[in-house]
Structure formats: structure tokens, C-alpha cells
Amino acid sequence: KNEVEQSPQNLTAQEGEFITINCSYSVGISALHWLQQHPGGGIVSLFMLSSGKKKHGRLIATINIQEKHSSLHITASHPRDSAVYICAVRSGVAGTASKLTFGTGTRLQVTL
Amino acid sequence: NAGVTQTPKFQVLKTGQSMTLQCAQDMNHNSMYWYRQDPGMGLRLIYYSASEGTTDKGEVPNGYNVSRLNKREFSLRLESAAPSQTSVYFCASRIQGTGELFFGEGSRLTVL
User: Fold this and answer.
1) What digits encode the pLDDT tens for the residues A42-67?
2) Do the chains contact at B106 and A86, CB–CB below 8 Å?
3) Strand pairing of A19-25 and B44-49?
């Protein structure tokens, strides 16, 4: 079993839909990252969180430490949201020696 | 503000050839990383550097060497390329305090 599991692996939505991407992990963590990767492009950090909830524009990230689960929500989805969304967890002692483990990503396609 | 810059973006090598991937960041970050991304797998850490003059192995260091030339630059060298090193390589840097990650655009390497 992978330390970081994302679901679904692939997601197709129509413009305007509310989207949820899930991330479950099996180790104790100090922080969780949500990243976005456009086709053929680089990787951009969306959120880093260790508790509660963060919001940026139409994106919302939540984390439940007890349940070892995080969700990324996209409200009023748009075709430009089409990308791969990657969850990564940081475990170990905080600092540069801590380990970052990545999920395999959720591929989102938003159609008109 | 360029962020993290990687070169080259694309490279095709023959088995046994050598090459160096260059990475530079202009954000004065201490920590820098090299990852590889393969289909169906999460990003995997090759090497990292916690500060200028220090480097450490990650999960998959075999076949690679690195140099932290100065605070800005962190290069990845393949001494004798193998087809198993066909991958997309990402350089990243991290803010010490918040832990936020910044990635380069990626370098797509094909070894024939």
C-alpha cells in the first residue's frame, strides 16, 4: 500500500461543477502539500497545510489529521482548471531532513 | 522574478552518454532538490541539498551525481546514461520557514 493515496485517479467534469479530490495517507505528517501540474508544464504549489482549512480563490483545501485525510475542492470549475493535482505529505522531523512523499496525482479534465 | 529555472527542457541521449541538468533559483533558498517523475508513480527524490556545500542522497540516487555550486545553483549529472533514466526531471527549492515548495518547469530526458 502506498503511503499516499489519491482518488479518483481521473476525473471529468463540466464547467461550473463542484469538484473534490481526495488524499489519504498512512504516516504521521508535519504538513501536506497540494500541487498543480498542467500538461507538459511545471509544478505549482497551491497549498501547504498542517491543520484546518485554507482557501485561495475558487480553491479550498482541508485536512483532518485524526483521519489522515485531506481534500482539495474546486468551486465553479473552469476548463483552465484542467491539470493533474498532486498531494504530497511531509513526514519526519520538521526541517530539511524530513521526507516528502508524493501521490500519483489526479488528472482533472473540465469540459465546456 | 524567475523563480526556479531548469535547462535544458528537452534532451535525447544515447546509452552511455553523459549530460548535466542545470538548475538555478533566485529566491535565496537554502534547500534545493532534484526529483524524477515517471508514469504511474509519484515524484521520487534523487538528491537534495540542505545548504550550499552539502548534498545528500534521496530515494533513487544510483546513476546520478550532484553539485551545489553556490546558493543559487544545483546541478544533476548523469555520467553514463541508461534507458531506465528516461524520465521528466524537476528541480525544486524550499523556503526554510514556511516549507513552501517552488518547482522548475521540468526537463524531459530520453535515453535511447
Assistant:
1) 899 999 999 999 999 999 999 999 99
2) no
3) unpaired
